[in-house]
Amino acid sequence: MLSIKESLGEALSTRPPALETSDIQATVLRPRPNPYCGEYIILRIGNAEQGREMIRRILPHVAPADEWWEPSLPGWLGIAFTFEGLKALGVPQASLDSFPIEFQQGMAARAAILNDFGANAPANWEYPFGTPEAHVALAIYAKSNQDLQTVLDLARKSHQDLEQISVVYRMQFGELPEGRNPFGFKDGLHNPHVEGSGPAGADAESSVKAGEFVMGYPDERGETANVPIPAELRRNGTFVAIRKFHMDVAAFRRYLRAQASSPEEEELLAAKMVGRWRSGAPLVLAPDSDDPALGMDGHRNNDFSYTDDMKGLKCPFSAHIRRVNPRDALKNDVVAVNLHHFLRRGTNYGPPLPEGVLEDDGTERGGVFLLIGAHLRRQFEFIQSQWVTDGNFISHGTEQDPLIGNNDGEGVFTIPRVPVRRRLKGLPRFVSVRGGEYCFMPGLRALRWIARLDEDPEQTKPCATEEGESP
């Protein structure tokens, strides 16, 4: 029998390490404000010294995760760098070489893996996505346009007199009515809970180890990241996959109209394709009709599993939310679902298409998603190439995600039913990729490390790592 001292020691040894939220950027751990507005900005660095000076100036305005709930800043500013951006800043070669190969290559070079072909091919992306000219990504969120302008002014002052720092891209975004996305579905409902980041919600899922999302902590395999080097650069950092999508709302509506015999059936088919009703109510909990009260209840609309729906009669296997997050549906398979989670920060751009309109009005509308995780290859790339694109893991062959899959007019969507399943055919491409980048989002101390590269040459050498890590 353990003594009180031994029991206390055992409890302490199994307690997850406390996250250094004051050193982790807020964008990583905290959801966007509600309501929200904001702007994405991409900068090009033409001179390393000016780039580091820009970082020194902007650092006081980068929001840390510990101030997200009661921020002292008028808005939330996050900063991340592409591989080309780190090179342009003068990050030492030893550090650059230590980054994972997928980050070094960049998203555009990984197009074959990500199924980015046809309309989604990098050749069709907006400039500067997929080019060597995209170096620094700024994500600015605020609750009001007035606060947004305040933060934009602070960001502008960080480089306005630095002639070799140039703005190469700007895009405003904002919340649509009722918090819906352009397709009309309630947006931003689910993210995995990061162990140690705050009180867990009422979700049926347990917390995921912090090391899956932030470097410097054990992940689901019990491993702690040991690259990039040195430890000062990686500690409390993470990777961000940026994806900008155009959403063809009119095509989505036309397809539903063609497949359904009534407006009610249109809504049911839309819910089957997504896995939720437009209100946010999950099909698993509301299989026959929408339940707006359930959809609005943040404590209940994610508190579900697929244990009682292993035949997909409530929520089809190929529904969007079930594909990108199978939850416990794969518990008897060899797939370790917790190894493939990422944090999702989504925003919308463009005005909604008016209700009832079935023809595209030529206006750009869609979403930008920041997909955050410490392991690009086994998180974003795995989900995109396997769960979104390949239907074999659910015994559906080449069937892709019906909503975000790169369908070309010959897509298929299977709806399990008794006695006979239904198969929707001729799925077009509802979502097109407009651009994407892989970025590294450092912790605040790492930002200072980068900013001081020209002050202390010794810090450019690989140095001793933190206890328990190896270079």
Counting structural domains, the number is: 2
How helical, in percent, are the residues?
10-25%
Q: Which overall shape is indicated by the principal axes computed on the Cα atoms?
A: globular
- Number of DSSP-assigned strands: 10
* Proportion of beta-strand residues: 15-25%
Query: What integer value in Å does the Rg equal?
Result: 23 Å
The stretches of 5 or more residues where confidence is low (pLDDT under 50) are: 4-13, 200-204, 462-471
Average the pLDDT over all residues and give the rounded result: 89
SS-derived structural category: alpha+beta
Q: What would you say this structure looks like, in words?
A:
The protein is built from 15 helices and ten strands. The strands form three sheets. It has a four-stranded antiparallel beta sheet. Strands 6-7-5-10 form a four-stranded antiparallel beta sheet. Strands 8-9 form a two-stranded antiparallel sheet. The model is unreliable at 4-13, 200-204 and 462-471 (pLDDT under 50). The protein is α+β, with helices and mostly antiparallel strands. 25% of the residues lie in helices and 17% in strands.
